[in-house]
Amino acid sequence: MIELPGTDLLVLHALRCGGHAGVARVAAAVGLDESTVESELIDLAVAGLVTYTAGGFNVWGLTDAGRTADAERITDELESSGARPAVTAAYERFLVLNPELLDLCAAWQLRPVDGVATANDHGDPSYDARVLGRFSALDRRAAVVCAELSAALPRFDRYRTRLTEALGRAASGELGYVTDSTASYHAVWAELHEDLLATLGIPRW
Amino acid sequence: MVRWIRPLLAEVEESAEILGAKAHGLVVLRRLGLPVPAGFVVTTEACRAFLREGRLPDGLDEELAAALGDLEAATGRRFGGARTPLAVSVRSGASVSMPGMMNTILNLGLTAEAAAGLAVETGDARFALNSRLRFLSTFASAIADTDVDGVAAAPDRAAGRSAEDEDEEARLADAIEAVQRLVRQRCGRAIPDNAARQLALAVATVFSSWDTSRARTYRELHDIPHDLGTAAIVQTMVFGNRDDHSGTGVAFSRDPNTGENIPFGEVLFGHQGEDVVSGRSLTRPLHELADREPAVWTALVDALSRVEGHYLDACYVEFTFQAGELWMLQVRPGRFVGGAAVRVATDLADERVITRHEALLRVSPQHLQHVRTPRIAASAEADIVARGVGACPGVAVGKVATTTDAAVRMSADGPVILVRPETSPHDMRGLAAATGIVTARGGPASHAAVVARAMGKPAVVGVADLIVEVADALVRTGGRAIAEGALVTIDGTSGEVALGSPRVTTNAADAHLRRLLAWADDVSGDRSERDEAQRLSAAHAALRHA
Q1: Which of B80, B112, B388, B492 is nearest to A117 (CA)?
Q2: Is the pLDDT score of B151 beyond 70?
Q3: Residues B362, B538 contacting (CB under 8 angstroms)
Q4: Does A45 share its domain with A146?
Q5: Banded pLDDT at B132 (limits 50, 70, 90)
Q6: Residue of chain A whose Cα is closest to the Cα of B221
Q7: What is the pTM of this model?
Q8: Which residues pair with B237 in a beta bridge?
Q9: pLDDT, tens digit, for every residue of A147-170?
Q10: What is the mean pLDDT of chain B?
């Protein structure tokens, strides 16, 4: 049984995959309460791995040392658990779904009217329902990939929870949870993509 | 008996429903006397049979063999032959447009033996290997439903020959091996080294691509029936990578940004098709063709004029030129929007190509919303340094920032344009801080495009030649270096990036729009104060009930 990594690594890695974020967003990403996350962040800052930007931003981010430390520990976790083949296979299946997800996000934002791509003003519930229906269909296929990832490395389980929550909220009328908010389906998906690249050590160009 | 195949000849009369829109366009080009590589189309009926039965229909094999025999006779080449080998392209083409959803396979038939034959014939081993690699990688992408370009990017044809050729040949051979290994790994079997089997597999693969979940989703969203199917077009290859007088490009008969009556597009010297459309390579503005290949340019301008004469509208074409000879690969109406649609419709009426009534019907009231979107004014002064795909309309002016950190820091002093290779969650702060966004990679559904629209910020994505050098805090594009902090203006409609702050207009098509609306009032007989969309809609209603 592979276990979750320590809270410190979870917090560090959340910043690696999600970019700069406030305590609340990191807490939502890792599924821990804010006070636990904040004390981890302070410890990581003392170790020189993360840094706080005040002045209205009030966000935490990785230092160069933090990025290096995260890469080492995440690679170590991957190799010591023997999860690389399973994560690689899941990543390939993710890549098949990724363009479709992006198509859906684009369709949520723009719809063709008389051949002109026009901003979706969400005034047509039947169109939105159709797009969300396709999101659900894609999400069912994504769930299979997420399950494979969670079986290989349990920390990936958070993505399933967060994707489900985003879609649920969108379906109940909180439309910002599709593409707009930092907890939107698109945002969580993009973090999952970044996590897969980071975990497998695949550089963006 | 059902016939599954039609030749691409002027006398073919079937509709786009049977031939697919792309093959139908090729037949039109043939009728116009324009140069189209010899070929044939496997119809949408064959695709529907394939989708029903899960295998290629009976009799297709024989028809394929016969059609290839005709191609061999027409070209004097042998399919899969060790000498003067015939290579073909296999492209999908449904009766409706589904951009980027389905497959294209180039240089099919270049087995190991045929590629060796091509090397002997041309005396250019690198060209032959390059072409075989392109065959394997496009085929692998299609059958493994994955993008293998990362494994073996089909290399550019470097200018001139040199002592590096041998190294280059070794590198190509390695890349060829890597793609084949990948296919064995992913698919559990190798790409057949037999031309006829390659073709049958390619046709089946194109047909299957109709039913990928991504394609199904696209059809659901766009109200396209699932049972139409796609055709598969098989044509003699023309090689845009053949020599220094070869290349490929796309062209509009008029400028799709403004509607102005001048050819507009991109050309890529020394490359094969797909490279332009995929946005992966360095394209040049179309007019450079006039200087470098004047004969090709003259033939292209003539072709654009003839296709406009047929479609009575601005048109879009894809073309390749091999050893200085032009070949047309696709044609369709231009589908302009916004101010460009208004201008083309009024100009065509003034040119007496269409009637004023037809001009009115060509412009949707929806287009009028977009006529007023701010745009970089077309002028000689605008110093356009890069061109990508407009992903979120509007104009943004600001200083170049090459990293999210720089964007956040610099935004305290004024507007910033974030310029990145592509974006990821790491760039969210920068995207939030920036006034506009430019990326090198990605299309209209990329991460950057989705986020830009969510934030309502003008964005240009897919600037293929853009290089972001974070270490030196500068970006390179179009042979120019632009330092961080330099002022640029981006147009999220046209995808243009200009240095400095050129004039911005919200009524580029104003004069044309006023004339069109005057015609609208003539038709409706109503000259009361109303908004523009209402004036146009009233004319549409009157014309439809006339």
Answers
A1: B492
A2: no
A3: no
A4: no
A5: very high
A6: A131
A7: 0.85
A8: none
A9: 999 999 999 999 999 999 999 999
A10: 90
Distance from CA of A8 to the nearest CA of B (A): 20
Task: Name which of B146, B337, B445 is nearest A103 (Cβ-Cβ).
Answer: B445
For the stretch B218-263, pLDDT in tens is 898 888 999 999 999 999 999 998 999 999 999 999 988 789 999 9
- Pinpoint the alpha helices (H) of B194-262: 195-209, 213-221
pLDDT level of residue B501 (50, 70, 90 thresholds): very high
Query: Is the same domain home to A65 and A154?
Result: no
User: Is residue A43 domain-shared with residue A56, that is, in the same domain?
Assistant: yes
Q: Are residues A73 and A87 in the same domain?
A: no
Helix A34-46 with A23-30: angle, nearest 10 deg: 110
Q: Identify the domain containing residue A95 by its residue range.
A: 83-200
Of the candidates B89, B110, B111, the one whose C-alpha atom is nearest the C-alpha of residue B41 is B89
- Could B450 and A106 be called an inter-chain contact, meaning their C-beta atoms sit closer than 8 Å? yes
Same-domain check for residues A180 and A93:
yes
Task: Measure the CA–CA gap between B167 and B29, rounded to whole angstroms.
Answer: 42
Q: Report which of B231, B211, B202 is spatially closest to residue B101, judged by C-alpha positions.
A: B211
B444 or B432, which is more confident: B432
Mutate to test the interface with B, among A105, A122, A194 (most CBs of B within 10 A): A105
Spell out, as residue ranges, where chain A has pLDDT lower than 70.
Answer: 1-3, 205
| pLDDT at residue B283 is higher than 80 | no
Sequence ranges of chain B with CATH classification 3.30.470.20: 247-333
Please list, in sequence order, all residues whose beta carbon lies within 8 angstroms of the beta carbon of residue B325, skipping any fewer than 6 positions away: B35, B238, B296
Span B359-395, pLDDT tens digits: 999 998 888 877 888 999 877 678 999 989 888 889 9
Scanning every residue of chain A, which has its alpha carbon at the shortest distance from the alpha carbon of B97?
A115
The answer to whether the Cβ–Cβ distance between B217 and A113 falls below 8 Å is: no
In three-state secondary structure terms, B331 is strand
Residues of chain A contacting B218 with CB distance shorter than 8 Å: 103
CATH code reported for the domain at B247-333: 3.30.470.20
Residues B154, B137: contact at Cβ < 8 Å? Answer: yes
| Domain B5-149+164-236: assigned CATH number | 3.30.1490.20
Query: Cβ contact (<8 Å) for A179 and B450?
Result: yes
- For residue B275, pLDDT over 80 is answered with no
- Give the pLDDT score at A138: 96
Give A118's contacts in chain B (Cβ within 8 Å): 366, 369
CATH number of this structure's domain B375-505: 3.50.30.10
Residue A19 resides in a domain: yes
Instruction: Give the pLDDT confidence score for residue B458 in this predicted structure.
Output: 95
- What is the number of structural domains in chain A? 2
Contacts of B422 in chain A (CB under 8 A): 204-205
Ramachandran assignment for B208, one of left (phi > 0), alpha (psi -120 to 50 degrees), beta (any other) = alpha
pLDDT at B277: 54
Q: Tell me, yes or no, whether A2 lies in a domain.
A: no
- Same domain? For A23 and A119 the reply is no
Distance from CA of A41 to the nearest CA of B (A): 18
Per-residue pLDDT at B158: 40
Structure token digits, residue B277: 């459309």
Query: Which residues of B fall within a CB distance of 8 Å from A134?
Result: 217, 220-221
B446 contacts on A by Cβ (under 8 Å) = 102
> Which ranges of B445-509 does DSSP label H, i.e. alpha helix?
447-455
